[in-house]
Structures are given as C-alpha cells and as structure tokens.
TrEMBL record:
SMART domains associated with the record: PKS_ER
Superkingdom: Eukaryota
Enoyl reductase (ER) domain boundaries: 35-358
Transmembrane segments: none
Protein name: Enoyl reductase (ER) domain-containing protein
Organism for this UniProt entry: Dioscorea zingiberensis
A GO MF label: oxidoreductase activity
CDD domains hit by this protein: MDR_like_2
Matching InterPro entries: ADH-like_N, ER, GroES-like_sf, Lipid_raft_assoc_Zn_ADH, NAD(P)-bd_dom_sf
Gene3D superfamilies, A to Z: Medium-chain alcohol dehydrogenases, catalytic domain, NAD(P)-binding Rossmann-like Domain
Length: 361
C-alpha cells in the first residue's frame, strides 16, 4: 500500500518538475494599468522568477478574491504600484509545492499547502505558479479542499494580527466585531470564540444565522437596529472591518477603559496616493498619532490601524483550527481563472455577496 502511494507521488512529482523545467513562463492574470475588470488580461507567457533561498514555488489550484485585489486594480496604492506595472494581483493561494529555494527546510516538493502574501507583495497569486516565502505557507489539511483553503489565509491572518498580536485577547474577554458577515469578520469571530472570548457582532440580516453558527453570541442587524441601544458596552476589544466614521464612533463608545479599537481602514495608503510617498506616509503617521493621543485622553482607550501581516505562528494556528473544522470561510461562488473579469465584476457589484474563488486547472 505504501509503495503504491509513493510510486504515485513520484510520478506526479516528475510530471510537475517536467512541466516546470520545460519553461520558466506561466499563465497569469496581469494588470497592465489601473481600471475596471476589463483591464485584467490572462497571459500565457508571464515569466516566473528564480527562487530566492527562502522562497517556495506553488502550483496554484485555487486563489481567492479579496477586496484588496479590487481596490488595487482600481488604483489603490498607486503611489507604490504605479511605477511597477504590470502587476499580478492576488494574495491567497492553495496548491502544491512545485519547487523550493535552497534554504527551505519545512516544506518539500509535492506537499499540498495554502497561504497568503503580504498586502504590498508585487507578484501576486493569480497565476499557475505563485511564489511565497516559506513562512507565508503551511500544510493544507487533507479534509479541506483547495477552494475552501484559498478563502482562509489572508482574511484569517488579518483577524489574527488584530486580535492576537495587537489586542492580545484572552479567555473570558468580550469582543465586538463590526462587520462580522465578511471574510475577515467571520475569521475574527471564529478566532475569538476559539480563544474562549464572548463575541458580539454587527452584520446584515442575511448574515445573522451564519455569524451565530460560527460562534458569535449576539448578532445585531446594522440595517434595522440601533447598535448602541442593542449592545451592552464595556468591550475589551473592537475590531472594525468597516471603518467608517460612524462605526468608529460607535466602536469606541462601546469599549471599556484600556480597551483596544482596531480599524482595518487605516489611511496610510490613501494619504500616500494623495500626497505621494514622501509626504503621505509622514502625514499618515501624524494622523494616527494624533488619534491615538486624542482617544487615550478622551476615552482612555488604545486606537490602532491594523494590517494583515505574515505570521508563521498565526498561520499554524489557523491551519490547526481549519483542520478541526473550527475556522471556515464559506465560498459563495467559483470561476475558472480565465473568467477573472467576470469574477471581479460579480464581487464588485455584489452580485455574489460572499467569497469568490478562482479555480486553476
Ligand atoms: N487592513 C488590512 O490589512 C485589511 C486586510 C483585509 C481586509 N481589509 C479590508 O477589510 C474590509 C473587509 O474585508 P473582507 O475580506 O472581510 O470583505 P468581504 O468579505 O467582502 O466582507 C465585507 C462585508 O462587510 C459587511 N458590511 C458592509 N457594511 C457594513 C456595516 N455598515 N456594518 C456591518 N457590516 C457591514 C457586509 O456584510 P453583510 O453581508 O453582513 O452586510 C460585507 O459582506 C475590506 O474593506 C477590506 O479592504 C483590510
């Protein structure tokens, strides 16, 4: 039985290596200029760079679409990305290891993996072959499909960074997730529930059942209810995935003294786009500092802009929870990668309300 599996694996690996050695080019979705979904181009001749020592080449099977992909396509982050066009979009990936850099020790060719790139990575994952650092990948649980796995890492690492690294939440604390119906919100509810916290959340009416089923104790429909009347205050941490002035005001008012308010809508990229990197980044730093001081003085709380960041320990916990069926991001619809324009349009116009994944054959 063992030799049959090993033989099968060896021939699969040979096939993979052959397909790789025959070319250093691969199919990828390229963004040649900023604009609507129509600017996306599927090209067959996109070069695959040589691996650096700690990098891993992944034969992608599924890549999920994040709001960041849509925003980058439309020009968000242009102060960083414009001089570097054409770009490949995409943060999440699930697939098989096709090759490893000289110093990679934790992964080997043929293993099934999933992971996510940093928000500012230049070569994204919408490609037959994606390149990620070793610590941006982890083994995919066999019980989770590539499509399911590709929906998880970017959203879950964003939630992880806020709740575990910034607020350092603990068992028994009360956590509020504003926008629990989205991918980051759902991940945050599940991570906080797994840590033994009591989770309240706001979401649209169509998401109420879903957020309660993954561990929220209280769900408030933001379209029909007054959040401040519906929720008892004194939260230890608020994760605001929406980050509008009104959600920020409400979130901060509901915190207890010493609590953490974290928004995913930090203004660093927007200010850099408006004023250029030289003036925009210092302006963003000054704005954040001003808000931190202001809220510490007026409300006695800690105010943060939080961003997704690679975190090997976080990714390992995310893998464990996914394997145990305790962390799932439901996938609403899949498209073949060749229909990436249609997929972006469906996500942008909210024709498909939840997670959209591109499948790669
Ligand atoms: N800072 C970072 O590093 C970082 C990383 C990841 C994501 N983000 C940002 O975080 C946001 C969420 O990302 P995502 O991947 O979770 O997006 P998503 O899966 O598209 O979810 C967005 C959800 O927000 C909910 N929503 C909209 N307005 C709301 C309101 N006023 N109150 C409560 N819920 C509301 C909707 O849920 P209902 O269906 O329940 O209405 C929607 O499904 C995006 O803006 C994204 O760009 C930032």
């Amino acid at each position: 039985m063992w030799s049959l599996t090993a033989a099968h694996r060896t021939s699969a690996l040979r096939r993979l290596l052959r397909s790789l050695s025959s070319s250093t080019a691969s199919r990828a979705v390229v963004l040649p200029r900023f604009g609507g979904p129509e600017v996306l181009e599927v090209r067959n001749d996109v070069s695959v760079p040589d691996l650096k020592p700690r990098e891993v080449l992944v034969r992608a099977r599924a890549v999920s679409i994040n709001p960041l992909d849509l925003r980058m396509r439309s020009g968000y982050g242009r102060s960083i990305f414009e001089p570097l066009l054409p770009l490949i979009l995409g943060r999440d990936v699930s697939g098989e290891v096709a090759a490893v850099g000289a110093s990679v020790s934790s992964l080997s060719v043929g293993q099934e993996v999933f992971g996510a790139l940093h928000p500012t990575a230049l070569r994204g994952t919408y490609s037959d072959y994606a390149i990620l650092a070793e610590d941006e990948l982890t083994l995919k649980p066999p019980s989770v499909t590539h499509v399911e796995a590709s929906a998880i890492p970017f959203a879950a690492l964003t939630a992880w960074r806020a709740l575990m690294s910034t607020a350092r939440i603990n068992e028994g604390q009360r956590i509020l997730v504003i926008g629990g119906g989205g991918a980051v919100g759902l991940a945050a509810i599940q991570l906080a529930a797994a840590a033994g916290c009591n989770v309240s959340t706001t979401c649209g009416s169509q998401s109420i059942e879903r957020v309660l089923s993954v561990g929220a104790e209280q769900a408030i429909d933001y379209t029909t209810e007054d959040i401040e009347l519906a929720i008892k205050p004194q939260f230890d941490a608020v994760l605001d995935t929406i980050g509008m002035p009104e959600t920020e005001r409400v979130g901060i008012n509901l915190l207890k003294k010493g609590g953490h308010y974290m928004t995913l809508q930090g203004e660093a990229a927007a200010l850099a786009d408006r004023y250029g990197l030289t003036f925009g980044i210092p302006a963003a730093t000054a704005m954040l500092l001003k808000k931190q001081i202001q809220y510490r003085y007026s409300h006695g709380i800690e105010y943060w802009w939080t961003y997704m960041r690679a975190d090997a320990e976080g990714l390992d916990q995310i893998r464990r929870l996914s394997e145990a069926g305790k962390l799932k991001i439901p996938v609403e619809k899949t498209f073949p990668i060749t229909q990436v324009r249609e997929a972006h349009e469906a996500k942008e116009k909210r024709v498909v309300p939840g997670k959209v994944v591109l499948e790669i054959d």
